[in-house]
Amino acid sequence: MHFAKLGGCMDLRNLGEFGLIKRIRKWTASPNPALVQGIGDDVAVMEMGNKALLATTDILIEDIHFDRSWIDPYRLGKKSLMVNLSDIAAMGGTPKYFLVSLGLPKHLSLSYISRFYRGIKEGAKRYRVDLVGGDTSLAEKTTISICLLGEGRTKDLIFRRGARVGDDLFVSGTLGDSALGLKILQEKKVRVKSLRLVEKHLSPCPRVELGQALAEHRCATAMIDVSDGLLGDTHHLLEESGVGAMVWEERIPLSRSYRAIIPLDSVDPYQTALSGGEDYELLFTASPRKRETISTLSRALRIPITRIGKILPRNEKLRIVRKNGRVDSPSRLGFDHFG
Ligand code: ADP
Ligand code: MG
């Protein structure tokens, strides 16, 4: 009764994106034994014979996720596919086929759509995936929804739920570049020195090969891609694993381009790297015994991998060790569509 009443006056502003997903997960929980992973990870995992089918979908909406004055249709097409590939990368799986559903306003030119598909095709070629279908409809704003399918073996896949107390916490690449690139675009302050950051925002590179290598070498206990920001995605991984963590702020990898815009001696230089979204790097946990293997993989693939934290018992929640040694529990975790 009490909950029904509470439910009645709730709306998306106080529930938030992830509060809503929790509700949907509760309403729709399935007892199907072939369903290895439903709602709650980067992809859904279904047993199909001796293999696992992976499925993920992401939506991009004009004026919410992109602005047509910033991103050309080629990059938009490519990015729409890349963000889905990143979710399969986060499981260590192999992407295979995808479907593209489009909502399009009438005034859009054929040339725009053809350049969009050139971007899609380029991305598909690079990651060896095939477009097999989709859907098309009239819409007020350009809306792109891609559903990507992939495969793997359940025992090799890396879920969000496997982190153990004592594990190290690692992240690939650098963080905050995309969010900074977006800010530069919004403020119309694109300069030569900020081009790399803007490009990181417009043309993300999913870490598919790294994800697969971590799975193949059984390095990681849990993994997620960083799409909502480091704090938000660390929180998702911790929640699914039922653990806490300590993150050392000063260890967060920042690119030279980031530091050229936000110098390390400025006020709170890590803020954007902690909460900014769309990095599409991999965040994973691993036993300290795997440190050597992880550095070898990082060198072989030429992808920087940085140890930024440690997994703690659940009651410790998420703690950030600041530059001055103060330990904080972040109140705002990252991007929320309804927040
Ligand atoms: P990601 O950031 O990796 O794309 P999300 O935060 O979008 O993941 O989603 C988290 C989980 O919730 C995923 O398992 C996703 O499939 C699921 N999910 C998101 N929105 C919905 C929805 N409207 N209905 C059912 N499941 C959803
Ligand atoms: Mg993800």
In short:
Helices cover 35% and strands 25% of the residues. With 339 residues, it is an alpha+beta fold. The radius of gyration is 20 Å and the shape is globular.
Could you characterize the architecture of this molecule?
Helix content is 35%, strand content 25%. By secondary structure, the protein is of the alpha+beta class. Residues 1-6 have low confidence and may be disordered. The chain has a seven-stranded mixed β-sheet with strand order 8-10-7-11-9-12-13, with helices on both faces. The protein is globular and about 55 Å long. The longest helix has 17 residues, at 12-28. The protein has helices at residues 2-9, 12-28, 73-89, 110-126, 177-186, 195-202, 208-216, 230-241, 256-261, 271-275, 291-301, and strands at residues 35-37, 44-48, 51-61, 94-104, 130-138, 143-152, 168-172, 220-226, 244-248, 281-286, 305-312, 318-321, 327-328. α5 (177-186) crosses α6 and α7 packs antiparallel against α11 (291-301). The two termini are 27 Å apart. Magnesium ion binds at residues 42, 87, 90, 224-225, 227.
